[in-house]
Target: CRP/FNR family transcriptional regulator, anaerobic regulatory protein
Amino acid sequence: MIQNLTEEYGNIFEPELINEIVQVGTFKEVPEGYKLIEIGDYLRGMPLLISGVIKILREDEDGDELLLYYLEKGDTCSMTMACCMGDAKSEIRAVAETDAKLIMVPIQKMEEWTAKYKSWRNFVFNSYHVRLNELLSTLDSIAFQKMDERLIGYLKEKARVTKDDIIHSTHQDIAYDLHSSRVVISRLLKKLEEMGKIKLHRNYLEILAL
Amino acid sequence: MIQNLTEEYGNIFEPELINEIVQVGTFKEVPEGYKLIEIGDYLRGMPLLISGVIKILREDEDGDELLLYYLEKGDTCSMTMACCMGDAKSEIRAVAETDAKLIMVPIQKMEEWTAKYKSWRNFVFNSYHVRLNELLSTLDSIAFQKMDERLIGYLKEKARVTKDDIIHSTHQDIAYDLHSSRVVISRLLKKLEEMGKIKLHRNYLEILAL
DNA sequence: ATCCTTCTGTAACCATTGTTACTGCACAGG
DNA sequence: CCTGTGCAGTAACAATGGTTACAGAAGGAT
Model:
């Protein structure tokens, strides 16, 4: 655990803080598809992501989903922090997009470290900053873009975070993330294939030139 | 300035912090419609709202607008804080929805006070928390609601923050805020009038029962 | 009063997205 | 090998929202 922490966070946290994290944190390794947080969950810990990708989803009363953004190594979940301040109920769902390693820190420490360590304060503020901007771009894409543009953006982003030009998703998977329907996504993907930008297969697709 | 501050913030900030704010802050009174922040502006100060309502807007490259949320007394602009951490360029526009009084605090103090005052830390974290959730509901309404529901929500929220069941807006104004077109809004408003929920007039409308 | 500008109402039309329904294909498991 | 299940392709249609165009009403300015 200590070497993982030092690798990812050694350059931003003071050694004493790293020590504290090692003391109170618990190491966790989760497989792809593992549901880390469900909407309405009471949060007891704050995750520090060591490796892998976590996707953060929003859902409404009817069960309609929407992908908000991905967390990558070095990220933490601002939503979690936000929740720790308030009623502590999660507003979002977190699912491992790939196998992932992370460290869970008890939320009680948050406040303490915020007073004690400048690096922690900067980290927390920076996380909020990044997450707010991430949410803003998500909002932009929903408000200002059409579905074909959103789809292209989605494929690009997914390829980026997984470092893989093969997208291992069914059309239905994509439709869920974009809060659309399978038929619509199939239609648009077919267009992209006709334009030579992607190549479709069963259960996956290749990005050729987006 | 001191009595304004004490009225709105006296119960959450320590007296020493109030003193510091009085020392370095500048009082500002702006009329309805005053543009406080434009997209791309470099931010030099952080606003603490004393009275009035500020609306926060997002805009894309083509100049299409979208209302994100309102700030009310006791609120501050998390976006501003977020911007102070990063490249300091504003991602949003802030316009006074009503006449408003506020205190501008130099951003250099933010970091200092965060280390020094627990109440300030809580205030800043809480602001982020509230703003994140506000952004989430905005996102919800765009992603999951249809225009008629969004319109009703908009009218209710506007009536709430202005404490006035008369909405002093033209159909075009509303269309801008909801990122729709005037004709669409007129159509939907007419339907609401036929349902007896509102009464339409030139340049304003009355909410009867929403 | 007359003119001009702005706001509103409305119709006709279009584009995008979502829905329903049905097809065939791929593949895993017996 | 057959069969069931899930995935993808496609057509026809519906609904929502956006666009264009035009007419008339309100209200201010001269």
Observations:
- Residues 146-207 of chain A form a domain with the Arc Repressor Mutant, subunit A fold (CATH 1.10.10.10).
- Chain A has a mean pLDDT of 92.
- Chain A has eight helices and ten strands.
- Residues 146-148, 180-181, 183-184, 187, 202-203 of chain A lie near DNA strand C (CB under 10 Å from a C1').
